[in-house]
């Protein structure tokens, strides 16, 4: 999907129109099909031709709902955020709220690894993202941080979460052989490195298998501990 007739989108994108297959097109339906196509065929499936074929409509009809492929990608990315935060109502404990928020986002991206690799670093400018940012900054303000600190700390928090989500998603998108090869390297290749050349690796040789485990939870806990410490110092 290239750049389309952008002037028509805002007025028409909310209209529901039947495709030639009889399916009533909508933004939600197009996003649903885009998610399914990318999951099955990879990022290259995010094209107007393939989406049109999957929906049974003329590809040009998609321009009534999305300006171009990037506009659709941002909508898909926002859907992941919405799925992550569905039913999320943080309580009084701001640390527990941030922890749950982090795990929800990470889990949602792992469930859609091919989209996550494309979208984790984007700013969607859409309602689900608005809610996520508002919720995260609200939790940090509840901790006692001022406006500027709440924004800065939220940026560090969400970038840490999305960075690990994108990394883990990229790993999940590898073929099983490559993924296993990367994991085994820590207990095979690294185990055989000469101690004279790599003394620090030799000293922790028995623990290097930990490198194959995901670092997401540890990184989140370190960040939360740091935020607690900063909050305690006022």
Structure characteristics:
disordered N terminus; two-stranded antiparallel ribbon; 234 residues; mainly alpha; Arc Repressor Mutant, subunit A; Tetracycline Repressor, domain 2; 2% strand
Question: What would your notes on this structure say?
Answer:
Strand 1 and strand 2 form a beta hairpin. This protein folds into 2 domains: 62 residues, Homeodomain-like (Arc Repressor Mutant, subunit A, Orthogonal Bundle); 153 residues, Tetracycline Repressor, domain 2 (Orthogonal Bundle), CATH 1.10.357. With 234 residues, the protein is mostly helical. Helix content is 61%, strand content 2%.
Summary of the model, kept short:
The protein is 61% helix and 2% strand.
Structural class: mainly alpha
Total domain modules: 2
| Mean pLDDT over the full residue set | 89
Supply the CATH architecture of the largest domain: Orthogonal Bundle
Query: Can you tell me the CATH class of the largest domain?
Result: Mainly Alpha
Number of strands: 2
- Share in helix: 55-70%
Q: Alpha-carbon distance between the termini?
A: 50 Å
From the spread of the alpha carbons, the general shape counts as flat
- At the fold tier of CATH, the topology name of the largest domain is Tetracycline Repressor, domain 2
How much of the sequence lies in strands comes to: under 5%
Strand order of the largest sheet: 1-2
Domain HTH tetR-type: 24-84
Protein name: TetR/AcrR family transcriptional regulator
DNA-binding region: 47-66
Pfam families: TetR_C_1, TetR_N
């Amino acid at each position: 999907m290239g750049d389309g007739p952008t002037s028509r989108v805002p007025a028409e994108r909310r209209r529901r129109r039947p495709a030639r297959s009889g399916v009533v097109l909508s933004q939600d339906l197009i996003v649903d099909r885009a998610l399914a196509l990318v999951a099955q065929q990879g990022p290259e499936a995010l094209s107007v031709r393939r989406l049109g074929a999957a929906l049974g409509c003329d590809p040009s009809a998609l321009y009534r709902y999305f300006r171009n492929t990037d506009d659709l990608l941002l909508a898909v990315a926002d859907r992941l955020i919405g799925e992550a935060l569905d039913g999320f109502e943080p309580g009084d404990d701001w640390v527990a709220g941030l922890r749950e928020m982090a795990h929800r986002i990470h889990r949602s991206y792992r469930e859609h690894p091919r989209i996550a690799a494309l979208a984790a670093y984007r700013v969607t400018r859409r309602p689900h993202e608005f809610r996520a940012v508002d919720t995260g900054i609200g939790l940090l303000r509840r901790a006692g941080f001022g406006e500027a600190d709440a924004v800065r700390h939220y940026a560090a928090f969400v970038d840490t979460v999305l960075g690990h989500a994108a990394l883990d998603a990229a790993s999940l998108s590898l073929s099983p052989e490559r993924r296993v090869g990367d994991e085994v390297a820590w207990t095979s290749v690294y185990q055989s490195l000469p101690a004279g050349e790599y003394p620090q690796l030799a000293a922790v040789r028995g623990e290097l298998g930990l490198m194959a485990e995901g670092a997401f939870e540890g990184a989140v806990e370190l960040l939360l501990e740091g935020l607690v410490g900063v909050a305690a110092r006022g």
